[in-house]
Amino acid sequence: MYIDTHAHLWFDDYKDDLDQVIERAVATGVEKMIVPGTDIESSRKAIELAKKYPNKIFAAVGIHPEEVLNNNFEETPPAFGVPTRPLAGSPVEESPLVQLQKLLDGQDLIKAIGEIGTDASTQELRGCMNAQKELFKSQCEIALEYDLPIIVHTRESLDEALVVLDSLPKMPRGQFHCFSHDEEGIKQVLSRGFYVSFCGNISWSKRVARLVSLVPDDRLLLETDSPLMVPRDKKGNPIHIDKSSDHSPKIAQGSELGDRNEPANVVYLAQLITTLRGQKLEDIEKMSTDNAIRLFRL
Ligand SMILES: [Zn+2]
């Protein structure tokens, strides 16, 4: 059994055929999927999917760093970054962080806080890095309070995220997802106890592919980041696990297959990782699945 630890199955991309997408995943051996939200609304959708597909889909709830561009988080009470609960009947609209905490109460379908973190990939995002760090910190504190792992996004901003983590009273446990930094970055996150996963970027970036063998067996996770980051061949065509055949995972490639990624492709990425690490596919399957079950307490 494989586990896709990062698939945004609430995207509109799946609105017509999610049942088939999940069937294909399960038929290919990807029996469990973690679905992270990126704001309150999508976090709610992730919980709904976990209810609809029990024991196959598990939810993560969180506010993505890009959301600082859409929301005013300044109104969050500043007490150590953790929002206080509003008084009952309060007419004030609740801040996203308060709503996030409410989602967590009594929900054992939620296995992580994510995806959260920092993003410095555009000028606009770099301009609100302080707000991003505050938002990330507050959500890490919520994760510590609820004893949940975090799923961390650190696009072009690993140092900024590490500063936040090091400022916390205790290091949270969690996953650095879609890792794309360098060898020193891998060392930094491993030394803080984190797990690491890569997505389709290992199929087109030699630089990222070289990092795959640096993650110890007991810290490696698999993910697709669906519907994004579809794996690609040398010509740039998307690669998919063949959908038409029997249950053996055959690889299909070609521009007609479309750019939408899906959890079944974790098996293709596992094959690539097997080659990059010089291990056996069944060992990659077992170790990454054991790691996901341990980290997310599935
Ligand atoms: Zn994501």
State the domain count. Answer: 1
SS elements, strand count: 10
Bound molecules: zinc ion
The name CATH uses for the topology is: TIM Barrel
The shape, in one word, is: globular
- Low-pLDDT parts are 75-84
**Any guess at the CATH architecture?**
Alpha-Beta Barrel
Percent of residues in helices: 25-40%
**What structural class is derived from the secondary structure elements?**
alpha/beta
Number of H- or I-type helical stretches? 11
| Sheet with the most strands, sense and barrel status | 8 strands, parallel
Order of helices and strands: EHEHEHEHHEHEHEHHEEEHH
Describe what you observe in this structure.
By secondary structure, the chain is of the alpha/beta class. The chain has a single domain (2-296), classed as Metal-dependent hydrolases (TIM Barrel, Alpha-Beta Barrel), CATH 3.20.20. It is built from eleven helices and ten strands. The chain has helices at 18-28, 40-52, 96-104, 123-126, 129-146, 158-166, 183-191, 201-204, 206-209, 266-277, 281-296; strands spanning 2-4, 30-36, 57-61, 110-119, 150-155, 174-176, 195-198, 220-222, 239-241, 251-253. The strands form two sheets. The chain has an eight-stranded parallel sheet. A two-stranded antiparallel ribbon has the order 9-10. Helix 5 (129-146) packs across helix 6. The two termini are 13 Å apart. It binds zinc ion. Residues 6, 8, 36, 115, 225 line the site of zinc ion (ZN).
